């Protein structure tokens, strides 16, 4: 059986929670808003992207089952999102437009910055993050250990 990327359903919630708990995170919103990577019926990774305004996205969470690290699952899942975030967002605000630039921002844990850079993200000022996310780490007791870094990806063909 081949791997599949799809939106989660209720049955994926337990596996998604287990994956994200390993990163001290939970499912933001409803499980059905998450994109999942499945192989042989098993959920091995998940991500959630939201469109905060037209052509401006925020990657809320990305996680891969610990036992599956370094097998390309995160790369495959994030590549899918970067190619067409509208298709990977459960409730997009706009529609894909050829030659229209778009941005995806995220708050990466320090240990994941290298991964995001390999995927085309660049470090950025937290002011480029949507306001509701730019201060999410300010009062977190794990901020020092996590070492969060705001990052941005610019996609689309620029005219």
TrEMBL record:
Gene3D superfamilies: 3.40.630.30
Keywords assigned: Transferase
Keyword DNA repair: no
Segments forming domain N-acetyltransferase: 1-140
SUPFAM superfamilies linked to this entry: Acyl-CoA N-acyltransferases (Nat) (SSF55729)
Gene Ontology MF terms in the entry: acyltransferase activity, transferring groups other than amino-acyl groups
CDD domains cross-referenced by the UniProt entry: NAT_SF
InterPro entries documented for this protein: Acyl_CoA_acyltransferase, GNAT_dom
Coiled coil residues, start to end: none
Stated name of the protein: Acetyltransferase
Lineage: Bacteria, Bacillati, Bacillota, Clostridia, Eubacteriales
């Amino acid at each position: 059986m081949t791997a599949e990327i799809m939106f989660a359903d209720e049955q994926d919630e337990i596996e998604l929670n287990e994956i994200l708990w390993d990163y001290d995170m939970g499912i933001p919103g409803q499980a059905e808003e998450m994109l999942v990577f499945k192989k042989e019926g098993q959920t091995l990774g998940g991500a959630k992207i939201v469109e905060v305004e037209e052509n401006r996205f925020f990657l809320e969470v990305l996680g891969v089952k610990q036992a599956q690290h370094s097998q390309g699952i995160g790369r495959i899942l994030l590549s899918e999102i970067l190619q067409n975030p509208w298709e990977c967002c459960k409730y997009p605000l706009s529609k894909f437009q050829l030659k229209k630039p778009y941005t995806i921002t995220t708050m990466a844990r320090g240990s994941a910055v290298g991964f995001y850079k390999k995927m085309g993200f660049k470090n950025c000022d937290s002011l480029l993050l949507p306001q509701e996310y730019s201060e999410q780490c300010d009062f977190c007791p794990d901020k020092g250990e996590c070492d969060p870094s705001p990052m941005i990806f610019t996609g689309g063909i620029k005219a």
